[in-house]
């Protein structure tokens, strides 16, 4: 399988992305997801087809995301045509497409989609990228790009119950930690991800605690 073709496709699709969902994010997700899979499966090999599926879905996952893609259906069709050309069979193509179309946080607010095992590692790695130091940096980058306030005590965190509410409610970056990011550790699928999520969440909670202490200076 020619993963290099997948990498070049991803680079081209995300070349103008500046909200933390760029190619380098996809590359980190690919590395992290495959590392966690290998850690949880002691007899797995780096060059296995399962690892190739994981890396491919990881690289591609944001190329169709509504946050950064103007025409998701068009890109899905391009990916559907590309995957067999680089060596994936019909079932593997289905796994990859199903994963990238159903793994996002917003897609799972109202209905929890059960992903194939490969997709669970990609979803976990993507969510880990929302935590820790990288997660903090990405949260403020995304919030700034979309004109969100850093913090406003008059705007209270909401309990997210639908995709439309998540996309359209009045949001601050600090509220985003309470509305989404602090909940991700409990949503992890795999053993390796659960442990790392707890570590990154603790780091992030310390950051928000320090932020609020500095904000509330007398």
TrEMBL record:
InterPro entries for the chain:
HD/PDEase_dom
Q: Identify the residues that the record assigns to the HD/PDEase domain, covering every copy.
A: 18-140
Entry's transmembrane regions: none
Superkingdom field: Bacteria
- Report the coiled-coil segments: none
The family database entries (PANTHER family) matched by this protein are listed as: HD_PDEASE DOMAIN-CONTAINING PROTEIN, SUPERFAMILY HYDROLASE, PUTATIVE (AFU_ORTHOLOGUE AFUA_1G03035)-RELATED
Mind telling me what this protein is named?
Phosphohydrolase
Please give the organism. Lactobacillus helveticus (Lactobacillus suntoryeus)
């Amino acid at each position: 399988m020619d993963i290099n073709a997948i990498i070049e496709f991803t680079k081209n699709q995300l070349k103008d992305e500046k909200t933390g969902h760029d190619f380098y994010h996809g590359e980190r997700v690919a590395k992290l997801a495959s590392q966690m899979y290998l850690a949880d499966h002691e007899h797995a090999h780096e060059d296995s087809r399962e690892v190739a599926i994981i890396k491919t879905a990881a690289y591609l996952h944001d190329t169709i995301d509504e946050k950064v893609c103007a025409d998701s259906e068009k890109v899905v069709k391009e990916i559907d045509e590309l995957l067999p050309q680089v060596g994936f069979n019909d079932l593997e193509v289905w796994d990859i497409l199903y994963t990238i179309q159903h793994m996002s946080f917003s897609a799972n607010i109202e209905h929890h989609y059960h992903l194939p095992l490969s997709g669970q590692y990609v979803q976990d790695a993507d969510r880990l990228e929302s935590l820790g130091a990288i997660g903090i940096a990405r949260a403020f980058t995304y919030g700034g790009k979309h004109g969100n306030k850093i913090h406003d005590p008059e705007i209270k965190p909401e309990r997210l119950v639908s995709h439309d509410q998540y996309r359209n409610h009045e949001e601050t970056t600090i509220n985003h930690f309470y509305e989404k990011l602090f909940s991700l550790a409990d949503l992890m699928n795999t053993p390796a991800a659960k442990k790392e999520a707890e570590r990154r969440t603790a780091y992030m909670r310390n950051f928000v605690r320090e932020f609020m202490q500095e904000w509330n200076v007398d």
